[in-house]
Structure formats: C-alpha cells, structure tokens
Amino acid sequence: MSGELTPPPGGYGSNTGTCEGLRLMYQNLSTLSELRQRQEALMDNILTMHQEMRVFKDRMISEVDAVLARTPCLIRERTKVDLDEVEIEQENLPPPLVPTPINRVS
User: Fold this and answer.
1) Is 84 exposed, middle or buried (0-12, 13-18, 19+ CB in 10 A)?
2) Which of 8, 23, 27, 34 gets the highest tally of CB atoms within 10 A of its CB?
3) Distant-in-sequence, close-in-space partners of 23: CB < 8 Å, separation ≥ 6
4) Is the pTM value of this prediction over 0.70?
C-alpha cells in the first residue's frame, strides 16, 4: 500500500453497488487532494511574492540612497518674520466685505 487514493472500480459516478457513504467518502478524498494541491501552489506563490517584495525593498532603498548621495539636501535656516512689519501694497487689495441686511417677510 502506498497510501494513495485509488478510485473504486467503476469510477466515482457509477452505480456498481458502492454504498452512498463510500461514494461520498471517495468524493471527499478527491476534493481534499485537489485542495491540498491548490494550497501547496498558493504557498509557493506566497513565498515567491515575499522574496520579490524583499528584493524590491532592498532595490528601492539602494536607489533612494544613491539619489540622496548624488543630490545632497540643503536645509536653510528659517528667518523669523514679523507680520506687522511686512508692508502690504494697499492698492492691490480688494475692498473689505460688508454684510448686507436681509429683510425678512413674515
């Protein structure tokens, strides 16, 4: 015995005297075998994708480091500005908004 599933002598769908319980068991074993194969394929794909993501991350980090080394980032010191001291050209400003009263009719 190898432990592998062997179909009954007429196939799964035949009525060769196999009781309903046995037929259902063989069908379930076949379904489980298919599910196991799909699970193994899925796990292989997951491992492949994980490896690709790791390579992508490493490549992206090295590209960012290369760009940062090629073009250094210069941070200028902030100068404090007092808004009251800044002169604004008054003639370019629109006139102030004035609320208009609304007459309510009851």
Assistant:
1) exposed
2) 23
3) 8, 12
4) no
